[in-house]
Amino acid sequence: MGKIVTFGEIMLRLAPNGYYRFVQAQELGATYGGGEANVAVSLANYGMDAAFVTKLPKHDIGQAAVNSLRQFGVDTSYITRGGNRVGIYFLEKGASQRPSKVIYDRAGSAIATASSEDFDWSTIFEGAEWFHFTGITPALGDNVAAICLEACKAAKAKGVTISCDLNYRKNLWSKEKAGQVMAGLMEYVDVCIANEADADDVFGIKAENTDVTGGKLSHEGYKEVAKKLADRFGFSKVTITLRGSISANDNNWAAMLYDGNDYYFSKNYLVHIVDRVGGGDSFGAGLIYACVNKYAPQDALEFAVAASCLKHSIEGDFNQVSVDEVKKLAGGDGSGRVQR
Amino acid sequence: MGKIVTFGEIMLRLAPNGYYRFVQAQELGATYGGGEANVAVSLANYGMDAAFVTKLPKHDIGQAAVNSLRQFGVDTSYITRGGNRVGIYFLEKGASQRPSKVIYDRAGSAIATASSEDFDWSTIFEGAEWFHFTGITPALGDNVAAICLEACKAAKAKGVTISCDLNYRKNLWSKEKAGQVMAGLMEYVDVCIANEADADDVFGIKAENTDVTGGKLSHEGYKEVAKKLADRFGFSKVTITLRGSISANDNNWAAMLYDGNDYYFSKNYLVHIVDRVGGGDSFGAGLIYACVNKYAPQDALEFAVAASCLKHSIEGDFNQVSVDEVKKLAGGDGSGRVQR
Amino acid sequence: MGKIVTFGEIMLRLAPNGYYRFVQAQELGATYGGGEANVAVSLANYGMDAAFVTKLPKHDIGQAAVNSLRQFGVDTSYITRGGNRVGIYFLEKGASQRPSKVIYDRAGSAIATASSEDFDWSTIFEGAEWFHFTGITPALGDNVAAICLEACKAAKAKGVTISCDLNYRKNLWSKEKAGQVMAGLMEYVDVCIANEADADDVFGIKAENTDVTGGKLSHEGYKEVAKKLADRFGFSKVTITLRGSISANDNNWAAMLYDGNDYYFSKNYLVHIVDRVGGGDSFGAGLIYACVNKYAPQDALEFAVAASCLKHSIEGDFNQVSVDEVKKLAGGDGSGRVQR
Amino acid sequence: MGKIVTFGEIMLRLAPNGYYRFVQAQELGATYGGGEANVAVSLANYGMDAAFVTKLPKHDIGQAAVNSLRQFGVDTSYITRGGNRVGIYFLEKGASQRPSKVIYDRAGSAIATASSEDFDWSTIFEGAEWFHFTGITPALGDNVAAICLEACKAAKAKGVTISCDLNYRKNLWSKEKAGQVMAGLMEYVDVCIANEADADDVFGIKAENTDVTGGKLSHEGYKEVAKKLADRFGFSKVTITLRGSISANDNNWAAMLYDGNDYYFSKNYLVHIVDRVGGGDSFGAGLIYACVNKYAPQDALEFAVAASCLKHSIEGDFNQVSVDEVKKLAGGDGSGRVQR
Amino acid sequence: MGKIVTFGEIMLRLAPNGYYRFVQAQELGATYGGGEANVAVSLANYGMDAAFVTKLPKHDIGQAAVNSLRQFGVDTSYITRGGNRVGIYFLEKGASQRPSKVIYDRAGSAIATASSEDFDWSTIFEGAEWFHFTGITPALGDNVAAICLEACKAAKAKGVTISCDLNYRKNLWSKEKAGQVMAGLMEYVDVCIANEADADDVFGIKAENTDVTGGKLSHEGYKEVAKKLADRFGFSKVTITLRGSISANDNNWAAMLYDGNDYYFSKNYLVHIVDRVGGGDSFGAGLIYACVNKYAPQDALEFAVAASCLKHSIEGDFNQVSVDEVKKLAGGDGSGRVQR
Amino acid sequence: MGKIVTFGEIMLRLAPNGYYRFVQAQELGATYGGGEANVAVSLANYGMDAAFVTKLPKHDIGQAAVNSLRQFGVDTSYITRGGNRVGIYFLEKGASQRPSKVIYDRAGSAIATASSEDFDWSTIFEGAEWFHFTGITPALGDNVAAICLEACKAAKAKGVTISCDLNYRKNLWSKEKAGQVMAGLMEYVDVCIANEADADDVFGIKAENTDVTGGKLSHEGYKEVAKKLADRFGFSKVTITLRGSISANDNNWAAMLYDGNDYYFSKNYLVHIVDRVGGGDSFGAGLIYACVNKYAPQDALEFAVAASCLKHSIEGDFNQVSVDEVKKLAGGDGSGRVQR
């Protein structure tokens, strides 16, 4: 199998321990994460040849970000070193009725101030089979959106499959700007990944009978969403994750897949959350793994949902699970009995 | 709006991390808390001008207690410095069927050995709008009960509204003693706050069809309790929190309010507990905030219940939430979705 | 009451904090535990005279294992010092659908390489009333199985009651080997303890209509299992714990007891798990306590189940609860209300 | 005595525990600090009425910065809330021959992007006696240099004494730019504070026979430096701290003071370092305290040096010592015997 | 060899991690210690049969204190359970010129409120060879002084050797009171242990040419002190530890012994301090070990000094070293080379 | 430049935090290290292409060892996966007169039970320039010694330079066995690295006038040692590190180099130790770096000594320093001034 390339920002994630609020914390857990980096680590953990492309400063914080990826076997040789800072996000874990809270401090990061010359896509895509990015990357700035477009073109030129997770972030850009920029990129995308709110936020495509905040999702309504997305942009596959948020501790988790012909729905998992950040990314990684390994649609969906179900039980952005663990859960064993 | 004054003891709280038992702990989390201090911090977090009155030793542990209040903006300028020790309570967090456990080591604390000359109530209540204390304060000793009475009289003389949380503590005094002393103070109190057991413990006023230990509470029965309290002491408002304890991890949480005319019941919340100590105090603070800001009865009750619902998700005695967070929950959004 | 002797291995338990996976951990909690050691500590916590017999190296890690037992009052004077290493097990705590994971690194431990001369059973059983071991001890090697047999004979000769927890460990021996060796030991055993899978694994005695992995247990089916065990080996009592695993966080927990005449079933507890390792051992310790104190069968069973229910709320292998705490839960108070 | 006002930036300080390097850290200690904030906290710890002026975002990280100041009694009521981020600095503690390392990530902070309208100096200086800033503040940008100039003018207009610590930071501006901007501000300054390198870096005034890197300082040479500074800018007092760096663990620490007439040299302390960041600021705070309290020159110098000697034994930017502790050391007791 | 009995208070020791000051600490290390308990643990670590006598509450904090002793093999069977609280001391570790700081919170502890009936000395001294107490025990109150006298009489009646460490604590009693009470006890004491200041504080016997605070001790002057003590009270041995405090990190450490005939001086050690609390106690334990094992005077002194030198490198009150480790150092190997 | 290959064991290192002794530790820091792995990481940190060859189990602890190497850029692609366990060493950090203590638990590790088929040296050495191993590797067993010999032969066949650090470990083999096996390997070795004791331990070649335990080393005596080693085995270079141990905290550190013609002595550093494990390995890595980069003998020696001097300031086995940092120190700047 060929190399899988992802492109985006990796941030320093600073989080109080346990359930402490920001104003209580004297210690912050320091890990690294970001949509596309999370996908790369997850794929490397599945034994894939995964490369993550970004720009990071030459200083030790930049180096620590590189090391966090290398540790799990991600190919970091295409990372450009330069720029001034590593983007940061502060994460406060929610509990019960109190939601998790994210404060972004990512403006001016190395990747957000990168330019076209920083990346040689033709070299990067040599031997590549798949390219993945999310809606966060073009949202970092017009320069990054332009780089993203160049990457898509280069990938397409080499016959590389392209997936995109819409991943709308309201603090990075408006819905209007997002819709306009993303539409331009979608023409290169084969596989579209979205959560229960993205299609509405980015393209104004809304599920009927659904109240995302209230945690009530109409699975039927999402068929229509998937179809509209596929019809508009010609995606070969559309997948939508369906999170039903009961509380900060407990969520329902499922997904659907539309392959242009049929609609597939996964099992639903009731997850007791350890850390839900990166849940969507772990779904994307599971889906890419399944696609590259030619799983049938229902199997691919179940693999991706089981993978991301497990992510909710793992600290940090990165999904630290193996193919065997995912398969065991997808195969029906979610009893959590001790493995000796 | 005027100043809100609370009076009582702030203790050093020593708690093993996570779910470790006392006999397993080599480290103890060191924070500070106590009924009336908790109310003051919560009000300061809502942007109120809140002052906490107590006596604390001049040494560094006393100073650390002062700092813990100042940190959140509480006015500590009326705290008298002197005496020998800071009261301590040891807290072991329960889980599942194992209850949380509190060991008090508060005898001989600076406030418990204070005398009338330590406090100049006339100065303290200048510009004040509200005075709050709980049943713990007079229980600290006859001297403190006398000081409390002086405070009530001084407050009343200045037209300050007085609230009292009955807060019965069986290890501090007998039900008989409590009933007698508290009755003398109630004549000055406008707003009475109680939990599902207090009215019975202190004044022998019991709800019918209720099994507090079993977690089964009859809401109807508490109407009668509230009415009897109001009738006996002439309270303008009586509120009763209704905790249905399913396990050390999961509780039902609601409250009622009686304003002499009508009975109001709040929404019920199923809370997954991070730390339930200070839950009642956070209700009191919410109620005071709502009263001072002239909320209608149902709104005041919902604000207080939502505020205290959130407290259960927060480590330490102090309720670290903002007015916006409380309003969001009271307004119906308890899904715990990540706030980015 | 006489001394209670247990014999087996105590290991160094190395576990990442919280829910971190092995590959994420830079710190490992270091405690000690093992089936029979856990029983001894639990009994010492109940005020019993409990002695744990094993072999441990003379170095500081061996000493730390001894200290961990002494700390809770276990008699360690029969522990032979010598050999090269302390057995180790690595424990990763599971959450939600992700199971806990144990990696054993116990080969070559001091006890696994012990010989008959290391233990003077005649001295050890002086004044003893009860002897307990589990199926793990003979599984450590033929030499240890032989020592175990000597212990059983010496115990029997002194009229000491013997209990055995079948405790099958597939990584230590095959089902065939286990069945053969254990059968030889069972002839000395009075009280047999098993979990929902042991009887099948060791002796091929299987409950009907039961899916252990799926968490569906037929209580009726276990009557048959208990009876078959009692009939085959002449046990005076057979107890079977019945764990219904909903997820790594939530389990149903109950047990049955067969005394040759009647079948007793305990209450069922829905437990929210802090640490489930040692759950079975805490049941065994509760049962032994109840037997030695001559509880009636249903009371003995309820005590043992309540004791082990509480264990699930406690970090580490050792059950850190008192007789009063167990009785309070067995008596019906599982509401988890704060004890002040 | 009047209020003491300081103005500048307070940053989030992120530091690995102990001697871990950045690339090894999974946890970062999160405290707050910055030259002028450090001075304000130190003065508040001496019982002074100290106010710190800055701009901080409205979000929780900004609030935590405010709380860190309030905790120690600093008046934070003049802090303007707004802007996007809190400046950050990463600190890695050195040991032996390995130096401590600072990585700044402060561009774009709220204070660096502040404008004149954010501060009402006339109100701020009401009742003030002293104004202090350091060379870092004008280095944050031309806008901040302009605000600083406004502050100086407003202070002067009210007869407030002004002190400035030259504090040259080469990563914020060039020596040329620094020299030019600082010269403009010096005309308002009464008391100049510098370290062994600042006068050279900012104004090209260099001590003879001195090798700062090699830790060899010529005390005589610094007399000339002080005199030149005083002569050029008309300072009433010039103080220069004299750090002789033996290693990252051990430093010599002393200072001199020139009051236009005489040169005073302090005792020298050999300090074994816990945390040397903020050492210069603690000297400044000690000097201001001594001046406001009208100490004689030698006494003022000894107080300031003893205060800053103690700072080296304290974790974090803030000097957590009392007047009594400083006086005890200045009085000659540096034996470190336990105080019971 | 016979049992060694020590009698006194064991306190909960609460200490910030590393060099944090009290006002900075959110976590406190929780260990247990006290003069006589420290001696008992040290002796148990040398393989001696050591029993510690005190009174401790029945609650979990009292139990944790018992466990802390049992863990290291101390016989806790003579500890009376009852009373209300465990005495506490807060410890802040000093560094460089900043001294360590102790805040006592021990009034009202179980042992301080004990009465004669709590201890059956006749049983306790069965099989005993040595009895040890320090000047802290009688300082806890007249009741405890009386119990201490009863213990001395009972010990003497059984021919048990008695040692006393003068251990003057100014916050517990005045020099006058100490001198008077201690004189009454000294008549039973065989071996007197003192530090460089005790003889002066308690009995007004002062070394010439010595400045304890300045760290300058005249060894000659202490000969006179020892002789006067021996002459006045008829001690068979007097030992005086000689701490020369250079800073909170570095001390000189030596001792002298007078056996009525000759004066012996030990080697001097320059110690780099990890934790100096319990240093004197570890000297006492070393001396008792050496006496019980019939070491020659110089050897006994060197053992005791080496033992206590090592204590300075160990966290907590208890000296965690073996006889072999002490002998190795006393024998001259203090190079600190790694032992593999 | 070509690849640098090292071969040996990487162990799980378990160490109490700070200066806690083994019997006090409830937490163990978990890192990975071993002589040759340490060299590989250090070289990777210098930007070299470094590969580490070993055998590690397939389970998660084995994976964590792999990750610890990958994190710093070491090529782990030649590591064979299999076997049962990861070797462990327990490390207790010494202080002052108390030495650090190592307890090995490495028997039966995957590499110790490896066989010739596990490694394809011909492939491994493709493109290699240097091969490094230490005396620990052949000491793991005759099988590993044989593999080591095969590696040497394969390396020699490809013209790869070979270095060996004698690294005698008395708990792994006797001096006789070591001398015999090592002599057979030395014939392939070009560069010999030893510490102040190795040549004596392994080959009976002893420095005159030297007392290693006492920390007194005769530099002259080591000239003779180096010459004898070079003469006997035909080494092109012999280097000897010269550690003068003052205490567990303070060491003198220097080295010599003999190139067959001249004797070179480095500067001496007085190091204040953070963690001295891996000090020798960091010297080896520095030397290899300098040789591969064709440094002149004195420069190579100074680089290696400065590199290893810095290692003593860094936690863990791995030397986390850059070429720039080493050069700065070798160039004379050891003042430890903060780098901003």
From TrEMBL, chains A, B, C, D, E, F:
Pfam families: PfkB. CDD domains: KdgK. SUPFAM superfamilies: Ribokinase-like (SSF53613). It comes from Youxingia wuxianensis. One of its GO terms (molecular function) is kinase activity. This is Sugar kinase. PANTHER family: 2-DEHYDRO-3-DEOXYGLUCONOKINASE_2-DEHYDRO-3-DEOXYGALACTONOKINASE, SUGAR KINASE. InterPro entries: Carb_kinase_PfkB-like, PfkB_dom, Ribokinase-like. Belongs to the carbohydrate kinase PfkB family. It comes from the Bacteria. Keywords: Kinase, Transferase. Residues 1-311 form the Carbohydrate kinase PfkB domain.
